[in-house]
Structures are given as C-alpha cells and as structure tokens.
Amino acid sequence: MIDFLKGALVIAGALFMLLASLGLLRLPDLLTRMHATTKAATLGVILIMLAAAMHFAEPSIIARAFAIIVFILMTAPVAAHVIGRAGYFVGSKLWSGTVKDELRPNYDPLTHELKSGMETQENAKRQPRETDPD
Amino acid sequence: MDTVILISQVIMSLALILSFVRVVRGPSLPDRVVALELFSTTVVGLVGVYAIKTNVPIFLDAAIVIALMGFLAAIGFARFLERGGPRDD
C-alpha cells in the first residue's frame, strides 16, 4: 500500500515538473512563463519530498523533508516576485494579448516614480523637509 | 518500485532538456533567469528521487543546499538586472 502511494507521489511530482517546463517553453511572455514554472515546480518538489518522507519513515528524515517543503514554499514566491519586478523594470515586452497593465500609465521607468493615480497639481508638489540635505 | 523511479527520472530529465531549450533560446535575460530557477528546482526533485532509489537519506541535505543556491542565484540575478536599468535584448 505504502509502496503504491510512494510511486504515485513520485510520478505525479515528475509530471508536474514536466508540466512546468512545458509551460516555460510554450507560453508567450515572461510573466506567463513565471506563472507556469513557479507553482507547478513547487508542487512537484513537495510531492517528491512527501514520497521521500514516506520511504524513510524516521523522525529526523521526515523533519528534513518537511524543512525542504517549507523552505521551497517560502522562497519560491519571493524569487518569483523579485524576478518579475526586475523583468518589468528592464522593460521586457508583454504578450500582445495582454488586456490590462495597471502600472503603465502610473509608473515612470526612468525615475522609478510611482503615482497613485489620485494626484492633483497641488499635492504633487514637492514639500521640502528638515532632514533633506542641502 | 525501481521501474517507477526510472520512469520518473526519465520524465524529469525531459523536463531538464525542455527548460534548457528555453535557456538557449532566450529571448531576454529575465527569461533565462526563470529557466535557470526551474532548472535548480528540477534538480532538487531529481536528488530526492535518487535518495529514495539508493536508500541514502543524506542526499536530502544536498537537496536543501541546492534549493538554497537556486534561491540566492535568483535574488542576485534580479538585483543585477535592476541595477542595469532598461535593456532591449
């Protein structure tokens, strides 16, 4: 029974990784590619580590496997966010079918200034502060 | 169990090859960084499967280190890209 479960988990994890790389290869632009790889590959690693925990079935090894799972779950979104942000900043092109890009009208790529979209002429003025260097 | 392990290793090698195609084809540097991150994640999975196959649990420590390295590489590349400013590759 546990052998069957292990085999199913390993195969499912490997298939999810294949799915992630297929998405990476087939999707049209940076952000859609990232959406394919981050989630599917994370799920693949989680399934394989669950299989490893079931295979060894010792408390220290199970703790190690769960440490890998928690680590991947915490780092994958951070890495995806940072790469997506950098990709947008360096001006990677979006897919031609993109419906909405909320940053485009409000963000200036040269000065890194971000507007809230609710500014008037008056409150957009720069107020000097005491801590400013001269 | 050995056949299942072999099949999963073949599938993951195929995934490595496909993501390597994306590393070669580009078209821009952020795409390559994403592909390399998927590469390191797939290698973590391969190491886990190898630990099951050989019955040696120490390999899971190597998996932890590889995952850490992939994360740090992604962060470093992103910092490098942001410092560089707009680019048109």
Automatic annotation (TrEMBL), chain A:
Keywords: Membrane, Transmembrane, Transmembrane helix. Pfam families: PhaG_MnhG_YufB. The keyword Transmembrane helix applies. InterPro entries: PhaG_MnhG_YufB (IPR005133). Signal peptide: none annotated. The keyword Transcription regulation does not apply. The chain crosses the membrane at residues 6-25, 37-56, 62-83. Residues 103-134 are annotated as: Disordered. NCBIfam families: CPA3_mnhG_phaG (TIGR01300), PRK12674.1-2 (NF009314). This is Monovalent cation/H(+) antiporter subunit G. It comes from Vreelandella vilamensis. The gene is mnhG.
TrEMBL record, chain B:
It is found in: Cell membrane. The chain crosses the membrane at residues 6-24, 33-52, 58-81. It comes from the Bacteria. It is a multi-pass membrane protein. Keywords: Antiport, Cell membrane, Ion transport, Membrane, Transmembrane, Transmembrane helix, Transport. Signal peptide: none annotated. PANTHER family: NA(+)/H(+) ANTIPORTER SUBUNIT F1, NA(+)_H(+) ANTIPORTER SUBUNIT F. Belongs to the CPA3 antiporters (TC 2.A.63) subunit F family. This is Cation:proton antiporter. It comes from Vreelandella vilamensis. The lineage of its organism: Bacteria, Pseudomonadati, Pseudomonadota, Gammaproteobacteria, Oceanospirillales.
